[in-house]
Every structure is written in C-alpha cells, then in structure tokens.
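User: Once you have settled down, look closely at the record that follows, taking as long as you need, and be ready to discuss the fold:
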Amino acid sequence: MITSKIYILLILILFLCPTIYSYRQTNSQDISKLKKVCEINKNVQVEAQEILRGRYPNAEALNVSATCKEQARKQIKDWIDEDIRNWQSIANRACSYELGWVEKKPNTCQAGGPPPICPVDHWERKPQEAKQRMIDDKAKIRGEREKYMLSQACGCLKNEMVVSRQKTLQESNSISQVYNPYTFDCKTWSCPPGMECKNNTCVPVTGYSETAQTIGELKDQTKSIITDEVLSSMAMKAIEKVSKSLADALKSKSFKIIGGAVSIFGGIFETTTMSKWTDGYNRGSEQIGTNLTHIRSLYGELNNYRLGLPSRAPKQIENDILKAKIVLRENLDYLNTFYSGVIREREIGKYECQNVFEYQHQLVNEAVNNLISLPNGFLSLSKNKQLKD
C-alpha cells in the first residue's frame, strides 16, 4: 500500500515538474513558449506572443522620474505575469474570436468560448465581427491599464515634488534659525516679519520661513527695517525661484528643454506638441522669462548704488522696477489665461501628468507673487542707514 502511494506520488512529481519549470521559465521576458491548440478546432493554434501583444501600456513614454518609471515597469511585469497565469482563459477567448465566435453579451463568459469550452450558451457565430471584437478587447484592457499606470505614476511624481519642496522649506527654516540677515537691535526699531525682539536683539521666530505672504508684509510694515544688502539678496532669490518654478512647469508639459532654465528664459526652447493654448502658454512663459532678466538687471543696478558703483539715481531705478512688476503681473495674467485653456481643452499629452502640471503652475504663481510683493527699492537710500518711524 505504502509502495503504491509512493509510486503515485513519484508519477505526480514527474508530471508536475515540467509544468512548474515551464511556468518559471515563461516569465515576463519570455512568453514565446506559451501556445494552445484550440479545443473547438484542433487544427487551429494560438500563441501568447501574438495574443498578449497590445495589452500593455508603455512605461518608457511616461514623463516622470526614474523611480516612478521603475514602479510603472514593475506594474507592467505584474500584468504580464497575471496574463500568463490566466493564459488558458485568454487563449480560449482568442480561439473563439479566431474561429468567428463572439459573446452574445460581451464579458459574460469566464471560460472564454462556446461548448465544449463553456457549457452555457453565451456565444454565437459572427465571423464578420469576431476579428474586430478581439481588437476592441485588447484596446479596452490596455486603456484600463494605461489609466491606472498613469494615475499611479503621476501620484508618485507629485508626491516626490511635494516631499522635496517640504524638505527645502524645512532646511531653509533650519538655516534661518542659525543665521538670519536681520541682525539689528530692537531697542529703537521694530523687528521685521518672522523676527521677534529678545534681549534687545531681533531673532528668528521658531518655525519661520520666508513664504510669499511673510515677505509680502514687508512693504506694509512701516516700522520694519530691511537693510539694502538683504533686499538685494531677497530679490535675486525670488527671481531664481520664479525661474526654477517656470522651468519645472515647462518640463511637465511636453516641452523639450534645451540648455536648462537659462536658455529657456532666453527664448530657446521648442515644443513637441503645438496648439492654440499650449502655444500661448509657451509664449507667456517666454515673456515672463524676458521680464525676469530685466528685473534682475534693475535690482543689480540698485545693488551697484549700494556698493558705490556707477548707477542711475535710485528713484529712477525704483520707478523702472515698479513698471517691470506691472508688466510681470500682466505676463502672469496672460499665462494663467492660457493655462486655463490647456486644462479645459485637455491639451495634456497621453503620458503626461496633469496633476503635476497644475502643481507646478501653482508654484509659478506663488513665486511671481512673492517677487512682486518685494519692495521696489531700499527702505534706506543711504548706505548703512536705518529708517526711523
């Protein structure tokens, strides 16, 4: 009795091992081994390499980071493995289509074909429709998977951006608590936003970061003091933030960037897709870039005055900065108009992330408003002199 059981077990092992080995070998990289002779016509055979082709989206076309793209590749591999596990049912359905059978009511038969495959009367002969039904099935499966892959990849990318920005703000805040350019005493003068008076000295408030709102308060705080050097530094940093956020927005919207952010703002970039709204966003970005260069030079000229270098009168420079900011506001309004058109008309590429483009455009608005909110000139026009009440 025991001997017979062992014998049966050995037979089962010998029978199952090739199957297990075949499954392990027939992985995502090699499906050429999978074939099936159709049960409803033994003269017809279907192959996985042909049947499974067209069921998977293209992870390489995603406009996302390397990490997010790798996650998408893994998801596609999982789908391939899933289809290999379900090969019998998929092959039955392919055989049915190949031989001119279609479901009376689509997607109701799990077995995948008429008798003897499935005992229930789910199928009917319609050779003229069968081929197209097979194409439609593939397209539907691919479309659903594509939508899921894009959602996951875009969520991954936006999360990376949010985490990166939060880290940058935290590091900026940490640095500001170690060193801050507002280092004057507060016996006579009130402290600027983000500072508080302790032991007759202005020190950073815990948790302080130079947000657009905080910096914007500077122009309305008549008792606040800001040194000439600090204004120059803040202006240049604000301009760079606009440049970076705009460059990131362009990268997220099918723009082929040539030479990085500096080249973009010189007008050297091209689009892979052109339409009314995308083209408008393109031109709006270029206008902002050109105006940023102008504002940068004006604040640079103002800094030259602070250093005693040749420059125009501060009042002239301040007036030009004010005019440039008015134009910058118009540029931003123009950009926002075309941004709305891009979103409304869905001018987002097939493998682009609309949520990321929206997020990056929001950062452009914040950065531009931050820059506009800065003072147009020194609160003190003489070197090292502080403004009194």
